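New to this. Please check this protein:
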Amino acid sequence: MSKNLIIDTNLLLLLVIGAVEEGRHIQNSKRLNAFNLSDYDNVLKIMGEYNAVFITPYIATEVSNLIDLKGYAQILAFKIARTLFSEFKEIDVNLNEDCESDLFLRFGLTDNSLIKLAPDYYILTNDHRMLEPLFESSQNTIIPYYTLK
């Protein structure tokens, strides 16, 4: 298996907002209160250990909807997101298939699709509630971020 990585929503949001003005807005985001600049640097380092980073349209949508900066910082964040999204490889999704599993009822669209993709990609996540089904889907490709902090 090649080393292809998917970065879950919150950590990808950290990458976007952390890239704005050298990370000074991480503390301004309500969604990133569990993270700091060293987490941003750590996620960048982890990314560098993989051949390619992949993204689903679901993750891209969530990240763009969760950018909670204001003014010029928000514009910069959206520009960074646009650049990152264009550099990552896009995974084709099937909305109907991604809603079929009973896990969709518990985790929603984005997380259910990640559970389905886990056997084929390494998945970096900080979502503790999703770890059990991710590990059930693929024990060897799940990277819980808290173990790397």
In short: The first strand starts at residue 4 and ends at 7. The CA atoms of residues 119 and 131 lie 14 Å apart.
